[in-house]
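Work Package 4 report. The design task specified in the project plan requires that, given a folded chain encoded as C-alpha cells, an amino acid be chosen for each position. We show below one input record used in the internal validation round.
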C-alpha cells in the first residue's frame, strides 16, 4: 500500500525533529514502516495501536523540514533490517523508577512515587538531563517535574500533597522507537474538605525521539471548592521543580510572552513560617511525632521548607485536624489581607525578571500561555506552552537552596490552570530564541493525506 502525506508549516523557518501524526485507510498491522521523502530520505513510522481501528491506521513520525514536506508511505520494516535508531530504555536510578529513557534529546526517569511524604517519594520526572548540555536539572531525586498540587495542597484542605502522599500506577499506551506514551493513574488521599475527597486522576506523558519537547495532559475527577476566597472549579496547580544545589540556580530569569505582569513577594509563606514558630513554642499537643518535628524545627532558619507545611499536613497526623483547621485559618486570614495590600504593586515589564532579587525570591505573574525560565549565563531555557492560559503563576528562584519552581497557581496556593489542557515543555539552548520556540509549540504543522 502507498499513500501521500503532505506536511505544511504555518510558520516560517525550519522545524527540527518535529512529531507528526496522521491516519491512512487500511488495516496495517506492522509496528514499523518506512516513508520516503521526495529527496529519497527514509523516515521511520511507528504504528499507533491506541489510535488504529475500524480499517484505519494511525502513525507517528519525527521529521525535520522547512515549510513543506511530502512523504510517501512505504513498506514495513522487515526482520533482520538494520536496527532503527530511536528511544532507548536505560537502567533506572530510583527504587520507584518506572522507566528511564534516552530520547536522544533528554535523559529522564519517570517515577511512580513511594507515598512517604517526602520530596524523594514524589511521582513524576525525578531526573532530567538535556543531551545538548549534559546539565542534570534534578540531580538529587528529591524534587520532580510534573507534580500537581492545588486545590488539594492548600491550607483549606490541610495541605495534602498528591505527588508525595500517593503512588501512581503507570500504563504503557505506546512504546516504540519514535514515541513512548505513558498514562499515570492515582487517587488523591483525603484532606479536610469533603468536596475534595475520593478524587482520582490520570496524567498522560508523551516523549519523542530527538524532539526537544515533551507533552502531558492532566485529567481529574470533577470538583468545585473555595480556595483563597474564590470559587475553584476544575482548576489545578501543576508544579515543575529544578535544583542546582546551594548557591546555584539552573535558571535565574523568568519571562512571559508579550511582557511580564507580576507582583513580588509571598506573604503567605511568611505567615506560615510565623505559625510554625508559634506552634512549636505553644502547642499543647504532645506525642512522639510532634516531638520529632519540634526537634527538627528547633533551628527554624536552617530547617527544610517542607517541614513547615508538613507540620500542618493532615496526612502526616502531627497535629489533630481541629488544631490544623484553627491554625491554618489564621494563616489564611492574615495572608488574604497582606496579599492585597497596596504595598505590593503590580509591575509591568518587557524585560526578563531576576526573581532571586525580589522579596522572598518569589513572583506571581498574571495570565499567560507561553512562559520561560532560563539561565542568563549559559542560555539554557525551559519553555512552557499551555493550550489554554493559566490565570496566574508562582515562580520561585531561591539562590540559597538552589531550588527553582514553575507553578500554575496564584497567591495563597490558588490553582489557576484548567484541567484537561495540553502542556508542551521544551528544553535546550533557547534563551535568545524562546519566543520562536514557544510559537512552534503552539502551532503544529498541518498534516494531510489527500
Amino acid at each position: 500500500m502507498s499513500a501521500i502525506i503532505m506536511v505544511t508549516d504555518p510558520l516560517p523557518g525550519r522545524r527540527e525533529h518535529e512529531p507528526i501524526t496522521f491516519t491512512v485507510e487500511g488495516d496495517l498491522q506492522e509496528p514499523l514502516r518506512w516513508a520516503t521523502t521526495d529527496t529519497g530520505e527514509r523516515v521511520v513510522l511507528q504504528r499507533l495501536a491506541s489510535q488504529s481501528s475500524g480499517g484505519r491506521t494511525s502513525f507517528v513520525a519525527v521529521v525535520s523540514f522547512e515549510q513543506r514536506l511530502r512523504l510517501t508511505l512505504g513498506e514495513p520494516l522487515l526482520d533482520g533490517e538494520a536496527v532503527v535508531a530511536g528511544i532507548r530504555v536505560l537502567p533506572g536510578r530510583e527504587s520507584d523508577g518506572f522507566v528511564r529513557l534516552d530520547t536522544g534529546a533528554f535523559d529522564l526517569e519517570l517515577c511512580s512515587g513511594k507515598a512517604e511524604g517526602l520530596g524523594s517519594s514524589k511521582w513524576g520526572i525525578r531526573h532530567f538531563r538535556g543531551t545538548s548540555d549534559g546539565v542534570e536539572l534534578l540531580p538529587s531525586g528529591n524534587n520532580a517535574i510534573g507534580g500537581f498540587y492545588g486545590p488539594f495542597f492548600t491550607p483549606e484542605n490541610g495541605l495534602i500533597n498528591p505527588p508525595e502522599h500517593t503512588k501512581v500506577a503507570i500504563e504503557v499506551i505506546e512504546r516504540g522507537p519514535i514515541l513512548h506514551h505513558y498514562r499515570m493513574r492515582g487517587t488523591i488521599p483525603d484532606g479536610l474538605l469533603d468536596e475534595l475527597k475520593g478524587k482520582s486522576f490520570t496524567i498522560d506523558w508523551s516523549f519523542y525521539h530527538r524532539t526537544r519537547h515533551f507533552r502531558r495532559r492532566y485529567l481529574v475527577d470533577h470538583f468545585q471548592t473555595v480556595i483563597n476566597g474564590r470559587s475553584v472549579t476544575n482548576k489545578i496547580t501543576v508544579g515543575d521543580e529544578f535544583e542546582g544545589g546551594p548557591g546555584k540556580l539552573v535558571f535565574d530569569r523568568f519571562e512571559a510572552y508579550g511582557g511580564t505582569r507580576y507582583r513580588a513577594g509571598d506573604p503567605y509563606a511568611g505567615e506560615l513560617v510565623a505559625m510554625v514558630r508559634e506552634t512549636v513554642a505553644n502547642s499543647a499537643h504532645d506525642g512522639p511525632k510532634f516531638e520529632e518535628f519540634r526537634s527538627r524545627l528547633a533551628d527554624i532558619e536552617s530547617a527544610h521548607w517542607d517541614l513547615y507545611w508538613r507540620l500542618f499536613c493532615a496526612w502526616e497526623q502531627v497535629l489533630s485536624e481541629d488544631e490544623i483547621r484553627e491554625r491554618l485559618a489564621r494563616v489564611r486570614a492574615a495572608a488574604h489581607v497582606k496579599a492585597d495590600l497596596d504595598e505590593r504593586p503590580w509591575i509591568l515589564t518587557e524585560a526578563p525578571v531576576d526573581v532571586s532579587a525580589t522579596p522572598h525570591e518569589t513572583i506571581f505573574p498574571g495570565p499567560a500561555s507561553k512562559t520561560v525560565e532560563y539561565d542568563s549565563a549559559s542560555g539554557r531555557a525551559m519553555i512552557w506552552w499551555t493550550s489554554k492560559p493559566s490565570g496566574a503563576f508562582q515562580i520561585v528562584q531561591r539562590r540559597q537552596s538552589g531550588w527553582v519552581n514553575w507553578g500554575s497557581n496564584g497567591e495563597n496556593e490558588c490553582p489557576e490552570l484548567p484541567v484537561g489542557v495540553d502542556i508542551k515543555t521544551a528544553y535546550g539552548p533557547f534563551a535568545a530564541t524562546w519566543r520562536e520556540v514557544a510559537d512552534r509549540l503552539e502551532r503544529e504543522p498541518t498534516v494531510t493525506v489527500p
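The CA atoms of residues 60 and 186 lie 28 Å apart. Validation will be extended to a larger panel in the next phase.
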